[in-house]
Q: What sequence folds into this?
């Protein structure tokens, strides 16, 4: 019998085909090898697995349900649309699935502090939540410009007990926050763990984060089968770094199910107006791994943009680059306008306010549903709730008349 896909990728050096690997400064090779070794041990340790299950059930609120979007389905007039409700996780998004596990790993490694960078603050809030629960120190690096823009998340992190460190050099946004966080980690790696926020970064992070998120796919598969006595025809998720997408894809990768990752087209096709890395990017190394990335004229990571601040990343997890290169996954596109339209439609038709990131997947699913007969089914990973986006949306886009 063929081995399940998840046991075959990545290889022992962290490569998915030619993508992935670990491009590290020499002094970090040893600490990363230790992380890898500890993870291999914990992955099969019944006590670790039990603790993670306990936390997910009694603290995070798992399993999250899948909901049939009856009104949205009728509105589109085609395939049946289901939602995997990751918006119902404690703290409002799928990110806690990996943050809780990363902080547990930090504890097992004997570290007393977790460090990360954050752009819009979502990863920072999730990690601060997990660190509070497990009693570890948490230090979040964030560009000064983002600190001013994302005030509510900065306040949340502070309330949760995290230290927020402003990155004050260069453009003072995500790239500088990465530099700053990495600098702190280089100085303190003996007592701290750098907790990456998606299926990106040097090996073993893309693999670990995928494994931690795969609970979404495994739950979905069982829940969907219970409802429909078959598997979905299409599974759709938005892709920034790609953790929520890899999580739900993991449940269906060996099955005859079409997997679609939706990339943000932002405002247009010009470099700087979107963050559609797989669609417009080329092979290259950034942030310690080889993947498909958007480059500027100098070959450096290009500026990117999306209305969904959690998906404006100039590259994509190496496993997405691989799966797309072998044709196992498909890339979909959605621009700002379509995302806002889906944001309002899901709110008014289903009573669910989605994150603008997740609304990209909803928008693509709505377009696809219309082209399919009613015996076909679509499952969307609704990665997060939209409370964080409400002020921005109503300030910039009129609330539509409820009878579309
Ligand atoms: C952070 C975030 C994303 C993007 O991250 P991935 O790693 O691509 O999943 C998507 N949706 C929400 C709600 C987020 O907070």
A:
């Amino acid at each position: 019998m063929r081995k399940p896909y998840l046991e075959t990728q990545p290889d022992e050096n962290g490569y998915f085909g030619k993508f992935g690997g670990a491009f590290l400064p020499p002094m970090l090779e040893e600490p990363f090898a230790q992380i890898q070794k500890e993870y291999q041990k914990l992955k099969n340790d019944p006590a670790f697995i039990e603790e993670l299950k306990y936390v997910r059930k009694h603290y995070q609120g798992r399993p999250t349900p899948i909901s049939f979007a009856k009104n949205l389905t009728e509105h589109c007039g085609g395939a049946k649309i289901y939602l995997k409700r990751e918006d119902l996780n404690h703290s409002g998004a799928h990110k806690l699935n990996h943050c809780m596990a990363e902080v547990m790993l930090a504890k097992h490694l004997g570290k007393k502090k977790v460090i990360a960078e954050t752009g819009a603050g979502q990863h920072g809030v999730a990690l601060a939540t997990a660190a509070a629960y497990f009693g570890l120190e948490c230090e979040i690096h964030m560009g000064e410009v983002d600190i001013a823009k994302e005030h509510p998340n900065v306040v949340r992190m502070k309330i949760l007990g995290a230290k927020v460190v402003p990155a004050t050099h260069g453009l003072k946004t995500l790239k500088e926050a990465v530099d700053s966080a990495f600098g702190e980690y280089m100085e303190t790696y003996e007592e701290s763990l750098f907790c990456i926020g998606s299926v990106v970064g040097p090996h073993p992070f893309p693999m670990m984060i995928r494994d931690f998120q795969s609970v979404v796919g495994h739950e979905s598969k069982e829940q969907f089968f219970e409802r429909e006595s078959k598997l979905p025809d299409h599974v759709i998720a938005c892709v920034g770094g790609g953790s929520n997408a890899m999580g739900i894809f993991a449940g269906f990768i060996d099955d005859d199910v079409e997997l679609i990752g939706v990339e943000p087209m932002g405002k247009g096709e010009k470099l700087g107006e979107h963050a559609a890395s797989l669609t417009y990017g080329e092979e290259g190394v950034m942030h310690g791994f080889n993947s498909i990335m958007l480059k500027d004229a100098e070959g450096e990571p290009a500026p990117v943009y999306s209305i969904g601040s959690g998906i404006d990343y100039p590259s994509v997890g190496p496993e997405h680059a691989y799966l797309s290169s072998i044709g196992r996954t498909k890339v979909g596109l959605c621009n700002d306008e379509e995302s806002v339209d889906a944001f309002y439609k899901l709110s008014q038709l289903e009573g669910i306010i989605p994150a603008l990131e997740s609304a990209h997947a909803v928008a693509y699913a709505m377009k696809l549903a219309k082209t399919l007969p009613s015996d076909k089914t679509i499952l969307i990973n609704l990665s997060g709730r939209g409370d964080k986006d409400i002020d921005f949306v109503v300030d910039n886009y009129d609330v539509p008349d409820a009878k579309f």
Remarks:
- The mean pLDDT is 96.
- The longest helix spans residues 205-228.
- DSSP finds 16 helices and 14 strands in the chain.
